[in-house]
Amino acid sequence: MAGLNWTFEQLAAYFAHHASFPRIGLNPIIERLLSTCCNASVFGIGGHSVVLRISPEIVAKVALEPGDERLRQEQTIFEALAKVHCPNLAQCYLRAADVNFVKFIPNGTLYDRMSIAKTRPILRWMLQLSHAAACLETLSYCHGDINPQNILFDYNDQIKLIDFDYSLKVGDELDVGYKPYVR
Fold first, then answer.
1. DSSP characters for 40-109?
2. How many domains does the chain have?
3. Per-residue pLDDT tens over the stretch 137-180
4. Taking every annotated instance into account, which residue ranges of this chain make up the domain Protein kinase (predicted)?
5. 43 phi/psi in degrees, rounded to 5
6. Has residue 1 been placed in a domain?
7. Is the residue at 36 inside a domain?
8. Per the domain annotation, does 91 fall within a domain?
9. CA 23, 59, 29: angle at the middle one, nearest 5?
10. How far apart are CA 3 and CA 122, in angstroms?
11. Can you give the CATH number for the domain in which 84 is found?
12. What is the model's pTM?
């Protein structure tokens, strides 16, 4: 999976031309990581965060704006997940202010795979996705944003569920998502 492979300047130029530009400017951690980590680049852009590839095995998910509550929510989930073993959930190595350092998952998304005309092990993938959701539920959380772009594949073609910033306690109301995944 190649990613964007952008510099900080390209990222800043992108947001300068989009209405989604952070109100207070880009988080300075983004530029700091890109300038201090050798060969680091912008891998992807989300609604409120950016993913930086900082080594062949590690990405950093950084809040676009300092103090973003959604990234803090994801850190709460990663803290809880550190107490259980679930092979189908993303692994976080380190949580710090405005940044999560996560294991890089290299083989694309389910969204990418859906456009490829090829036999797929759908039953195995459904079992793995169910296992990932069940792991979260044992901690009294639900994912909140399961969709094909949040389901990645590792080197062994095993599912890894990512993006826990909209996870919530079981029973809480959810105010996120897009059709056809949320109604």
1. -EEEEE-SSEEEEE-SSSEEEEEESSTT-HHHHHHHHHHHHHTTS--TTB--EEEEETTEEEEE---S-B
2. 1
3. 999 999 999 999 999 999 999 999 999 999 999 998 877 666 66
4. 37-183
5. -95, -45
6. no
7. yes
8. yes
9. 35
10. 25
11. 1.10.510.10
12. 0.91
Give residue 45's region: left, alpha or beta (phi > 0; psi -120 to 50).
beta
Name the region of 59 (left: φ>0; alpha: ψ -120 to 50; beta: rest): beta
* Distance set, CA 74 to CA 34, 41, 90, 91 (Å): 22, 22, 11, 12
The 8-class DSSP code of residue 39 comes to T
The Cα 86–Cα 119 span in angstroms is 26
Question: Can you give the residue range of the structural domain that contains 48?
Answer: 8-169
pLDDT of 3-58, one tens digit each? 999 999 999 999 888 766 666 789 999 999 999 999 999 999 998 999 999 999 99
Alpha carbons 45 and 26: distance in angstroms, whole number? 12
Q: 49 with 61: CB under 8 angstroms?
A: yes
User: Tokens standing for 168?
Assistant: 């919530």
Lowest mean pLDDT among 21-25, 103-107, 113-117: 21-25
